[in-house]
Amino acid sequence: MAAALSTTEIATELAASEVTLPRLALEQLSTYLELLLRWNRRINLTGLRDPRLIVRRLFGESLYVANVVELKGWLVDVGSGAGFPGLALKLAVPELRVTLVESHHRKGAFLKEVIRECLFTTTEVVTERFEVWSERLSAAGAVIITTRAVSVSDRLLRSMADIVQPDGIAAFLTSEEIAQQLRQRKEHFHWGRMVGIPGSRRSVVLLGRPALRSSM
Asked: Could you give the CA distance from residue 185 to residue 102 in angstroms, rounded to a whole number?
């Protein structure tokens, strides 16, 4: 397994995405990183193997969302995988309530171990398809909904829009090409800013609000 990085090295890699974290969060990120490297030998959590690239491209890009969205209330992360961006954002705002929806049970087990080892509170893992889980919610309640590198169907967009509060926001961490494609689909979201991530040639954050609710 690749050697772990020091918190100083982690901070240096995060700086490429204009992200800074306090000491405790850097220590939690170090624990998260070690678990990710260990589990990645058994299940495919990420194709990246270099710890520096993992910090820069997965943690850094995810945490940059906190620079463009006010993180408060309840965040729902769709198709969490290894926890990006949803669980990474817990590092930036510890009091944030986070629900990670990941249908792959082994990935769900990984997320639960990270939550336990990092001592994250008010964080839960839902191991089923988001569209199925969201149908059981009695009302829109999420303030923020996020997703990264997930194939976005019309049904998924509709389900995401349905659970976000009227003044809530969706943040799609994706490529510029896919973001432009999403902006052509106007039935479920009003699209706002598309923000490029510093240090990345490809990744952007596309913001949206549920259709007919409010503007950005």
From this structure: 24
